[in-house]
Amino acid sequence: MYTDNGFDYDVAVVGGGPAGLTSALYTTRLGLDTIVIDRGGGRAAMMRETHNVIGIGEETSGNELLQAAREQIQGYGAEYQRDLVEDVTPLGDDADDGFRVSTGDESYQVCRVVLAMGFTDNRPEPPLPPTGRGLHYCLHCDAYMFVDEPVYVMGTGEAAAYVAMIMLNYTDDVDLLTRGEEPEWSDETATMLEAHPVDVISEELVGMNKGENGWLESFEFADGQVRSYTGGFPMYGSDYHDNIVDALALERNDDGTVAVDDHGQTSVEGVYAVGDLTPGHKQIPVAMGEGANTGIAVHKDLRAFPRSLEEIESQGEVTAADVPAISSTLESTAVDHEGHAGGPDEQSLTASDD
Fold first, then answer.
1. Does residue 18 form part of some domain?
2. Do residues 94 and 222 both lie within one domain?
3. Is the CB of residue 226 less than 8 Å from the CB of residue 242?
4. Is 353 part of any domain?
5. Phi, psi (5° rounding) for residue 231?
6. How far apart are alpha carbons 287 and 284 in whole angstroms?
7. Gene3D superfamilies from the entry (predicted)?
8. What's 281's domain CATH number?
9. What is the pLDDT of residue 3?
10. What is the per-residue pLDDT for 324?
11. In this structure, is residue 168 part of a structural domain?
């Protein structure tokens, strides 16, 4: 692999959410020396329960999901480091010249970079219930929780108005809270709202009541009214973690997401992006799919064999000394792994057969 040519790693994944960890899972299992550098936190880590991930039950928190994923990739031979990447710099004009990935104290030379930093949802001002106990950021994940329950949506923009109307698919009790701010949605959207049974409440919040289990029960408003809610969705936009995106001058879409092709390749060859940085639904299964797709693409980009006719002409035929094209560290880790064909289970079975 490229680590034999002076690189510290074949692949650096910047960010340790579901998209980044899945990318690392695939690149590592496909024989590429991979490091994940993760500052911690993120949207997935905020989840009290995991929704919409097949095979994972409600009892699994986001932190538990991520911890299991970190242990999984490390078991295959990936390195995981908790740190903040401050800069990614091309080492030349060609992708195969590689990149320098720098944290505050360390720097690594790598051949390919996968950006998976995600974004942060903007929180409204208090009073607010705890995240996951009445404050929720993903309609597609959490609408199911509020079937036939009183729900609020906070915000003044188009997204807030539309989410309020969408929630009528699940409950007949939806309030849109503008919290003393003037609505910014269009006249067309205002006409749509008037044709839907959504109550627009303009008063500011002055208090909140929670149950013994910590769940929101009601909000108190400046005009003295108290309205009951089981939960709701603040719609105040998001901030992309995009310092590296800007420094690399990656092409962006109109909504601020990073422009990528079908394999996660950005406008800078050798730099990929996955997860919430990119267009599409902000869902864990979608992020995992993007991570898998990009991990496979990076493998195809970097794998040593088959050599093309041009490479055979310039480098010669592949010899026994050239194979396998995997680092000695990954090779030994794979051979010792329980999932290896000749691993402990297989060895025990062979011994019993004897």
1. yes
2. no
3. no
4. no
5. 180, -175
6. 5
7. FAD/NAD(P)-binding domain
8. 3.50.50.60
9. 60
10. 94
11. yes
Tell me: do 163 and 81 sit in the same domain. Answer: no
Q: Which two tokens stand for residue 19?
A: 């998209």
pLDDT in tens, 64-111: 999 999 999 999 999 999 999 999 999 999 999 999 999 989 999 999
| Reported confidence tier of residue 315, pLDDT bands at 50, 70, 90 | very high
| Containing structural domain, residue 144 | 139-234
How far is Cα 284 from Cα 267, in angstroms, rounded to an integer? 24
Please report, for residues 24, 186, 328, the alpha-carbon distance to residue 15 in angstroms, rounded to integers and kept in the order given: 10, 37, 26
Counted domains in the chain: 2
Phi-psi bin for 307: left (phi > 0), alpha (psi -120 to 50), beta? beta
Give the global pTM: 0.91
Residues 114 and 6 in one domain: yes
Residue 294 is assigned to a structural domain of this protein = yes
DSSP 67: H
Residue from 275, 280, 277 nearest 257 by CA: 277
Extract the tokens encoding 330: 């990954």
H/E run at residue 163? helix 158-166
Structure tokens at 69: 């994923």
